[in-house]
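[09:14] KT: can someone run the structure on this one? pasting the chain below
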Amino acid sequence: MNYKTDEIDFSPFNADEVLRALCSVLRTSKHLSFSYAGDIQSLIDRIGRVFYAGRALIFVHSSDERPQVEIFEYVKSEKAALAFQFATPFGQRFAAHLVGLAQEVTMVEEPSTFAAELDSEYKEFFGKLAENLGPERFYMIPLRLLSSDVGSTTSEKRAGLLLLQESDAKVRWNKLVLDSLVTIADHLAKLAQVESLNCRLEAHEKDD
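[09:31] RB: done, C-alpha cells below
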C-alpha cells in the first residue's frame, strides 16, 4: 500500500464506528446488481455518508459490448459535482485511464503533483477537475479482478475504481478507515466478477 499515516487516534472514528460503517456498506451491497444504476447509486451514497466523506465516486465498467465507464457520485452539499464531466468521449477515455492507473491505494495530497505524473493529453482535463476537488486529499482504490487463467502473465483486470475524498483538510482518515475501504473495494470486485460469470452462463444457456 502506498499510503501512510502517523495518526494514533481514530478521529473522526473509533474502532467500533469504523466496524459499524464497514458492516453497513457490506449489508447494502448484499443484493447489489451492477446492471441496475439505482443499486450502485444507493451504495455510493451509503459509503459517502457512513465514512463522512466529502466526496465518493465509483467508476464501473459497463457490461455493454461498447467500452464505457459509468460514474456514480456522492458529494456533500457544499461541493461541486464532478461525475457529469466524464460524460464526453474524452472524459470517458480519462475515466478508463484512471481505472487502470491505480495499482493499490493511491493517495493524492497535491493535485498538481498528481497531474504532473499523468500522460500529457490528460493534464488539462484533470486541471479542470481539480478546480472543483478542493484542498482535501483523496484516495483511489481499484476494484481488482483476479485472473481466471492459470499461470497467466497478463495484467490484472479491473471491475472499476473507488475515489474517495476526505471532508476536511484538517481531519485525516487513518489506516483503519483506509483498510476498511480496501475491504469494500475487494468485496465489490468479487461481486462484479460473480455477476459477470452469471451473465455469461445465462447467455450460454439461451444459446443452447
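[09:33] KT: thanks! The beta strands are 53-61, 69-75, 106-108, 138-145, 157-166.
[09:34] RB: yep, looked fine to me
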